[in-house]
Amino acid sequence: MRRRDFLKISVAGAAGTSLLAAPRYLRAQGPIKIGMPAALSGSYAQYGIQAKRAADLFSKDIKAKGILGRPVEFIFEDTAGDPAAAVRKAQKLVEKDGVKFLTGVALSSEALAVSAKCPEWKVLFMSTINGAGALTAKSFHRYFFRVNTSGPMGARAISLYLAESPMKRFFALGSDYAWGRDSAASFTQQITAAKKDIVGSDYPPVGTKDFASYIAKIRQSRAEGVYLALPGQDATIYMKQAHQFGLNREVKPIMEILELENMKAVGDAMVGAIGSSRYPFTVDTPKNKEFVKRFHELHGMYPDMFDGETYEGLEWLAQVIAKAGTDDVEKVIEAWEDSTYEGLEGPFLMRKCDHQAVQPGFAVECVKDPKYPHPIPKILATYPGDKVTPKCRTEEFS
Amino acid sequence: MANVLEQLLNALALAGLLFLVSAGLSLVFGILRVVNFAHGVFYMLGAYLGFTTVALSGWFWPALLVVPPVVGAIGALLESSTLRFIYRRPPIYQLLLTFGLALILEESIRVLYGPTAKGVDPPPLLQGAIDLGGVLYPRYRLFLVVLGCTVGVAVWLFLRKTRAGLVIRAVAQNSEMADCLGADVVRVRTLVFGAACALAGLGGVAAAPMTTAYLGMGIGVIVDAFVVVVIGGLGSIGGSMAGEEE
Amino acid sequence: MTPLLETRELGRAFGALQAVAGVNLAVQPMELRAVIGPNGAGKTTLFHLISGLLAPTSGRVIFRGDDVTALAAPARCRRGISRTFQITSIFPELSVLENVRVAVQLKAGDNFRLLGGRSVLEASEQRARDSLRLLGLIDRADELASTLPHGDQRLLEIAMAVAQEPELLLLDEPTQGLSPEDTVATVGVIRQVARERKLTIILVEHDMDVVFDLADRISVLHFGQLIAEGTAAEVRANADVQKAYLGGLD
Amino acid sequence: MIPSRLWALAALVALAVVPWVLARHQLSLLTDLLIAGLFAMSLDLIMGYTGMVSFGHAAYFGLGAYASALVLLHFAQPVPVALLAGALLAGAVAVPVGWFSTRATGIYFAMLTLAFAQFLYTVAYKWRDLTGGSDGIAGVPKTALFWGGPSLTSPHAFYFVVATCVVVSLFVCLAVVRSPFGRALQAIRENERRFTSLGRDPRPFKLVVFVIAAAFAGLAGALFAPFRGFASPEVMFWVFSGQGLMMVIMGGIGTLVGPILGAMLFILIQEVLSSYTEHWMIFTGVVFVLIVIFLPGGLVGTARRLGARA
Questions:
Q1: Is residue D177 situated within a structural domain?
Q2: For the domain that residue A189 is a member of, what is the CATH number?
Q3: In this predicted structure, what is the pLDDT of residue B245?
Q4: Distance from C-alpha of A103 to C-alpha of A120, rounded to nearest angstrom
């Protein structure tokens, strides 16, 4: 059986029931197709897989009613985290499968490459994972929407938290590529604005296996906290080694993003780390509790950041299509601009000016809780959307 | 001064791991005349199997003993089912074949273990840091230094003092000697390949508590190991020890 | 008459081993000189020194009155020294004709014609065919070199060298590995080539019958040193030579 | 057996006709296949005809892509200018790299080219002001065919640009390998010592062909940037160099046409399998290993052998 057919069957039930319910003229239009050129293999597969998990849950949830009475079909393509493959797969989804909505792209480099093509293809690109500030600033165009918290927003949330903390001296450690350097720069700027000190910074290359020399440098700087913008794997290795060196007791680790995946991989050595979270599954809203329960029933695990953010994106998109009354891309864009949505963590607003979703920001701490098999993010502070969202089409904050 | 000591220990701990990988790479090139691109993947396989063994038994130590032979056996099996048939071809075919094997193994591990890194805790005895005259240094890294030295000495003794070691050295120095081994040459190749993989597997198990077991760790290590081996002189096992000093 | 090739105190050491030591040779134009000696006497090393594949550690090589010691192998070839190898050295996956044609082309120049160059190809092909005809290989011109029998491969290698129209031809054991019949045939071909092309030839050979049959003069190497030189009869009578060979044959 | 001229004619006609037969996404795919084919073919020039295995060929593809992207994005020049820029930059950088690398042979040559390629990759990765770092350069436009000419945004128009480049490149490469220079290269591949003793230093030959191959790889990259609309460091990564080697072996080393087909096969396998399973890499690996063991001549080499036997 073709995998694609298999995936279709996961929504075929929806099609079956909804087709019966839908009027004849709607049935003729067929399903609403959402293309996901996601990194399902390679080093960044965990992000693509999160997007897929969210889509699986969403198609189960939407099964009964569909969107506009039409079934929803997800078409997955594996990009392996390579921007060239991402554009190729996206192009195939658009040209062959007739997809009008693209989402689930994992890496910023992939997103920038695919997004740049969307005006030409006239399809809507919904980011639920990509952090690069440029997507809603320099590279913005009207076919792009970002539902997730961006990198600068995450840095903002943790900076706001640190501004109120007693810690005064910080060290910035960012991976030596766009995201790591941008995050470190953004953090430095905001910490300095809060009249605190950056006592050192360094940029290990991506894929560093031995952080011993960086750990020595951080210790020597006598910083009280170390800001870490390291991608998944590197963060895991850093945390393990810093724990072995006993550094985590002396210098508070502050993660640009504090992911569940890291907590699972690192285990107890991660406890005590703080950081920003784009979506902590421990948010105490009725809607989120319900979501976490359904997610756990389906997948047997707790949702990570992009599980939550992607689910929100899909639900919001469905809501907007329903509001527009059509899946015509231009009409959907108009309907989405300045619309609101009740997300898992609270209220969302899609700004018309740069299509960045204004939403709450979180500072969290990694803690142990006997109710869970692994450490979990505990919410330290929640900041309202207007405090953590940058000025329109910039990466600056007022 | 304390800093110098720390840097020195760091270099030694890493060199120990790298030695386990590059020694095998060098050995395989010396005897089989094959640049084994898949060698790093056996290191990764060692780390993942180490994770499994620790998860099943709850202990770290058995992994050090159990995993290397298993990795070695898998390596020997792959050699005898693929590489064995193409030794007569130009070297590029062997290099590319191992490239293909590396893809297959790496993806297979991903299928079995999923994309997430697998953390392995060091044994309780080696957890935490120890005070070395003002320097807090992780016990586990000290263990890696000891392990690297022990295996290094063991390999050296094996090559210098045993008959099998003599044959291996002879073949490594003069590839035409392989023909003089007659019918045994097939078996020697398989055994050497397996042994090299076992060394890499041991390196992987030992690395897991420090770096976790993760996808791509094989590719990362193979590039470093190539550098070591080329600096130390391809095919010379002593060379790969010397090349560590960087 | 000035010699075509001269070596003066030519020597080459590999570490502690003195493979060739203080060899003085003078080969006259049109001469057919054989270099003999027991295994390990330094014959092939001497060839490498003359053809430029190895640089000497002492002494000089004079060709046509010019000091060519500093020249690398390709330059010496272009000046007129062509050679064959002890272990057959051809281009196995090219055709017989192409093997010889490339040899002509490489010496003649115009090798960097990236496009077209048909005239270059045709000119060199003509000379290649002549050479193949001379060596009796013309019927096999279109076969792959690797498919030739061993004897023909040895001849092909000579054809490549001859096609370059050298003044000095170095043949390193041309009958090595050949059957007695093939050896006789090859000797005949070499003699014919020498006569027709008016070549000066230096020959390294193991087979004494071949040497005594072909050579005008014979030089004897032993442990890297020249111990005797003269006509076949003179060398045969030389006591040092007898000792070296008897000593070498124990 | 059908003579190769007829095959060539048939292939040309097919290339000219297919755009009117294929669906839009198939045409995109075909364009992609042709670009990869050009890349693999350029690698075959050094690998198959000169016996130099470069493990860093992707770097020149990448240089071409960046040069083309920058020219199109910042100077809005016609596409052919960008193509020329890509080929020239790749060729120019290959001069010093080749000068050093051709001092080594065999596996050492492979390692040296790999090292230089990784260095170039690192430059692309770190020089953020120029290359956009890891994010790359997105939004590369397909400009006009000539100054004031029509834009090439339609899939058909760009396909014909690519197809023309590939066909012309193939004929140029075929002419090169049949020229006196090309014959000399094959002699180097067969026996470098014999080559030396026949009167020429092989290194200038190797350097020239290395630069030519790099320029064609650069041309492929220069086509890639406007086609996909971006350039990023991934296209310079050694993995892509390794895939290039796989394409050459799969299609048939030393045949020029073979690697083009090999590249097509490689990407098609990936394209088809990745729709069924994200574990497509395993199958690609298995297919590749089987080809290496059982079909050392690749597709074309094997077909020729069977043809010769029939």
A1: yes
A2: 3.40.50.2300
A3: 35
A4: 17
* Region of residue A239 (phi > 0: left; psi between -120 and 50: alpha; otherwise: beta): alpha
Determine, yes or no, domain membership for B58.
yes
Tell me which residue in D181, D193, D195 faces C114 most closely, judged by beta carbons. D181
What does residue A373 show for φ and ψ, rounded to 5 degrees? -75, -10
Instruction: Please write the tens of the pLDDT for every residue from B15-74.
Output: 888 888 888 888 888 778 888 889 999 999 999 999 999 989 888 888 899 999 999 999
From the list C91, C107, C114, the residue facing D194 with the nearest CB is: C91
Is residue A13 pLDDT above 50, yes or no? no
CA gap B193, D187 in Å, rounded: 34
* Domain-located, residue B6: no
Could you tell me if A334 and A374 lie in one domain?
A: no
Say if residue C67 is in the same domain as residue C186.
yes
C76 and C120 share a domain? Answer: no
Number of domains in chain A: 2
Identity of residue A390:
P
Q: Find, in chain B, the residue whose alpha carbon is nearest to that of D110.
A: B92
| C181 and C244 housed in the same domain | yes
Q: Are B141 and A264 within 8 A, CB to CB?
A: no
In this complex, whether C and A touch, counting 3 or more CB pairs under 8 angstroms, is: no
> Cβ contacts of residue B35 below 8 Å, gap of 6+?
B25, B29, B91, B94, B95, B98, D107, D110
- B47-79 per-residue burial string, b: 16 or more CB within 10 A, e: under 16: bbbbbbbbeeeeebeebbebbbebbbebbbebb
For B184, what's the count of Cα atoms within 13 Å in the CB-facing half-sphere?
12
The kind and range of the H/E element at B3 are helix B2-32
Task: Tell me, yes or no, if D138 comes closer than 8 A to chain A by beta carbon.
Answer: yes
D28 and A178 within 8 Å at the Cβ level: the answer is: no
Chain D residues with CB-CB distance to A120 below 8 A: 153, 229
Least Cα separation, residue D245 to chain B (angstroms): 8
What is the distance in angstroms between the Cα of C239 and the nearest Cα belonging to chain D?
Answer: 37
* Vertex D65: Cα angle to A136 and A178 (nearest 5): 40
Which partners does chain D have (≥3 C-beta pairs < 8 Å)?
Answer: A, B, C
Give the alpha-carbon dihedral of D223, D225, D228, D230, to 10 degrees: 180
C186 lies in some domain: yes
Chain B hits for A236, Cβ within 8 Å: 117, 119, 212, 214
Distance from CA of A327 to the nearest CA of D (A): 22
- Mapping DSSP to helix (H, G, I), strand (E, B) and coil, where does residue D132 land? coil
B223 pLDDT more than 60: yes
Boundaries of domain holding D214: 22-237
Show the CA angle centred on residue A164, arms to residues A161 and A167, nearest 5°.
95
- Looking at residue C62, which CATH number applies to its domain? 3.40.50.300
Helix (H), strand (E) at residue A274: strand A274-277
Q: Does C116 touch chain D (CB under 8 A)?
A: yes
Task: Give the number of domains in chain C.
Answer: 2
* B101 neighbourhood in chain D, CB within 8 Å: 285, 289
| C111 falls within a domain | yes
- pLDDT band (50, 70, 90) for residue C2: confident
C86: in domain:
no
My answer on whether A190 and A328 are in the same domain is no
Nearest CB to D28 within list A4, A91, A108: A91
Q: What is the CA radius of gyration of chain A?
A: 21
* A209 contact B CB<8A: yes
Give a yes or no: residue A128 inside a domain: yes
Residue C22 lies in a domain: yes
| pLDDT tens-digit series, residues C189-200 | 898 998 888 899
Q: How does residue B242 score in pLDDT terms, banded at 50, 70 and 90?
A: very low
